Amino acid sequence: MCDSVCMKLGIAVIAFASAAWAQDYKAERTSDHGIPVIRLMDTVNKVEVAIVPEVGNTAYEMKVNGKNILYFPHPDVADFKARPTLSAIPFLAPWANRLDQQAFFANGKKFNFDMELGNVRGQIPIHGLLTTSPYWDVTTVTADARSARYTARLQFWKHPELMAQWPFAHEYEMTYQLQKGELEVRVTVSNLSTQTMPIAVGFHPYFQIPGVPRDQYVAHIPARSRVTYDPRLLPTGEYSPMDMMDEFPLRGLTLDHGFIDLVRGPDNRARFYIKAGGAMVEASFGPKYPAAVVWNPNQNGQPQPFICFEPMTGIPNAVNLAGTGKYPMLQTVAPGGRWTESFWIKATGL
User: Fold this and answer.
1) Is the full-model pTM beyond 0.85?
2) What is the pLDDT of residues 141-157, one digit of tens each?
């Protein structure tokens, strides 16, 4: 009799514990001002992430103890969709940052952009084609005892106005995973074409310490070398030794610089951070992000309330520098191949 009762009690305890663990993480489809949104929650560490798939699949909130560590100047998601700006965590693809001309090189061939299509910006094309793309399809929204996860896919090859500019049939899969208070952002590129495709993607995260003026931040950039730029903020193909302190104040400083030869820890991540008032916001890059751009601008003499630590697969203009033999580190993915990498974000002391 006892064995039967005890067994039932044991099963009940296990079931109760499993249900409790599952509630540590939540993932849900919801909406904000009528715009579909995905929310990931880590209830133990009090972290909540919100993503808007139809505006570039952008994560626009990462609230830690109710405070958003992502700079997002819009009052709501509807305003963001109506008047999109670079903020929060934009995805830059199929190229990140600047190109030196309205064309790119791959496999020994020059591909000219069709500027009349209107989806390539400027004499110095910047930030790719997908920062506010509506073409992301939600594939998975789930949570279990270990994490909350969301995955979306963008089938680049389906859209003629994209293929006209970057004629490689390929797909992107992006996963946001929230685990132990840390957000992982993982992207996979699948090359469906018959040609080797250059990988020149990146992200442009905007970080802040809520309630603290940017001039009070202290920053850390884990790099041994800086990228040398010309007056157009384009790399020359040369580098100089890192000339910044291990930790340095942002007061009075403006940065729009590239960095390479990143210093990595035992986990093979390169760890960037800002800290102030006992709080710290960290961004860690996986090994296939060997370069970074750091941007903390001023406008009309006033510091903007953010800093960007941007994970990059190569320095700005990597595809064209590689075409001239000045950047041998360009990453590529073979026909039928896949490329994948992650970066991570977490905050403490908030």
Assistant:
1) yes
2) 999 999 999 999 999 99
Summarize the confidence of residues 118-126 as an average pLDDT.
Answer: 93
pLDDT in tens, 63-106: 999 999 999 999 999 999 999 999 999 999 999 999 999 999 99
CATH ID of 91-348, from 3.30.1240.10, 2.40.50.140, 2.70.98.10, 3.30.750.24: 2.70.98.10
User: Among 171, 216, 210, 207, which residue's Cα sits nearest to residue 292?
Assistant: 207
Question: Is residue 13 scored above 80 in pLDDT?
Answer: no
pLDDT of 300 reads 82
Residue 305 pLDDT exceeds 60? yes
